[in-house]
Amino acid sequence: MSVHLNNHSVARLEAPIKATEAIEENLARDTWQIAEIEQAITEANADNFVAADEIDELFKKLGETVQYGN
């Protein structure tokens, strides 16, 4: 079966398809970002950070100083 449509009808049919594709792309991107954020939160909650005094010592060895805060 063939259907012949004018350009206006074709454009109207394509608009929701393009919108759906854009939504799917955004969801894919957002899903990836959410997964990365959740992983970072898990790592942060593991409390596996370098202590400030260890950072100070490292920078001291490098001949630098660290200023905390403003």
Describe what this molecule looks like in 3D.
This protein has helices at residues 7-45, 52-61. The chain is mainly α. It has one domain. The radius of gyration is 27 Å and the shape is rod-shaped. The termini are far apart.
Q: What characteristics describe this protein?
A:
70 residues; mainly alpha
Set down the secondary structure blueprint.
Layout: H1 7-45, H2 52-61
Element string (H = helix, E = strand): HH
If you average the pLDDT, what whole number results? 89
> Cα distance, first to last residue?
72 Å
What structural class should be given to the helix and strand makeup? mainly alpha
Q: With helices defined by DSSP (H or I, 4 residues minimum), what is the helix count? A: 2
Shape: rod-shaped
**Rg over alpha carbons:** 27 Å
Q: Total domains, how many? A: 1
- Major sheet size, sense and barrel closure: none
Percentage of β-strand residues? under 5%
Number of strands: 0
Low-confidence stretches: none
- Helix percent band: over 70%
Organism: Dickeya solani D s0432-1
Protein name: Transcriptional regulator, CopG family
